[in-house]
């Protein structure tokens, strides 16, 4: 009989379950191990349904391949996004075995609120360009139970440019504020363009003037009129002139003055009473600020001054005090304050050296008598500076300071025809000496302005002077003056302050800058030189001896070595300093020329054998050079060179050979004798010679 078939299984499906050879499709095994299924077939007689047979077997189904699949995304919304905006990112994925999934988001830039979320939020970076920028945003989806099973995908997120704008981020402002009338203000502003474009600047003010209105940080020169001034800056995008930002500040101008100080060490004074007595608050370097205190005969430094001695005077007092200041560069300082009255003003001074200054904003002639002169008030009595000097109350001169040349004399040129200066400059400090406490009285503005200048004093007959300089290789130098005068004068030097080289005349324990002795024979001076730099080369010079009478012979003697230098024939004398501040002493001797002066005479004749006999007479031992010259004055032969000869007469025999080694032809010649002593004196003589061949 025919047979009927019926296939069944515990899972899956048959393509034809009644066929003798059926095809079974296994179900998906999403587990991690094989799954068994029972497949059964029943065969029945086609004629008799009660006759049948059944059998089965176990079919194993392997797990599906383990993989993670991204089924949708990743994407972001919105796309494009504004600069700095946020994007909602999402992705859909599945694990083939149904495991949990892990997410890891990344991007070229920007940041995620949670990079491990399935749908995080991404914050875009600022786009400071002029076009949209694309960033790649990626996500990696990983099986939570097997980190080796993952899938990665990405998309392009566009970020639009930032809105085009210029922003002022700091300022504008001015320093100092307030500023003194006519002073300088450093203006500053900081701005940015959010797309990085270049910026231009335009400054304006309701008064005053700028050094450059288009600079980012210009200097504004204040008006002389006190008040509040509005200073404005407009910042513009260089690629879009319609895109700007504008801001202003109020600059206060108060009474006062400004001044440009040179680089280096300066002795200064203020021609006004500052609002703020602290020099550090006015722009001075408080680490390089000092003032002389005569009561202790020492300098007081700002950073070691608990009493405020180095500060300026309070507002109710009169200016006119001097201070030491150091400037690293040329520096403009603006000082708010009040100028003193135009009336005559007095500065109280202790006995001894005082640092003073011109208390006027204009130069003041140093005049010691007559209209517009400086005066002295002592015990209620007022007198001219000349009278005060005659009474022994004070000196009638001052000392200025110039870096590189040290102290320079200030005096009344109508009385003393010496000194480098005859007036006080505003903003400069000076040294003044008084033997008793007194007041130095400055003339009123009217008196000083109406005083006619007097003619310069003339030297008396027989007056002369020698300026002596000491210098080192750095260029620093110092000068003193010695000489003779019908009206002798000695001028003391003030205390030194950190100078590289020092030179003074020493007399009875005093350091002098000028010593003019009474007319007479044999004047002499003791000099004291020192260097603030160890092992420095110090050179003494006397650039001008034109005033010294010809009948005098000036001589410099180094007392340490005994070496004597004749100053008329030597340009200078150098020595090496020892330790910093170590003193070297010298004597300057001026004696009549006939005392110890070198004199040389010579005569020449032809001796036997064609030789020349030269007879030389010296008044002192010297080194002798002798040359033969033709009638045109050209040297043709050498008799001797560097020959040491004692005082007296000596005869030299010469073979009359030329410098070329040939016999000189007959003719008329001159033999020139040059003798030089150890101290630099030099003498010459000529001896005619008729050479016969």
Report on this structure.
With 693 residues, the protein is mostly beta strands. 2% of the residues lie in helices and 52% in strands. The chain is built from two helices and 55 strands. The mean pLDDT is 92.
Shape: elongated
From the N-terminal CA to the C-terminal CA, the straight-line distance is: 176 Å
The radius of gyration over CA amounts to 52 Å
Quaternary state of this entry equals single chain
Q: What is the helix fraction of residues, given as a range?
A: under 10%
Classify the secondary structure makeup into a structural class.
Answer: mainly beta
Q: How many runs of DSSP E, i.e. beta strands? A: 55
Poorly predicted runs are: none
Brief description of this entry?
Helix content is 2%, strand content 52%.
Supply database-style keywords:
693 residues; 2 helices; elongated
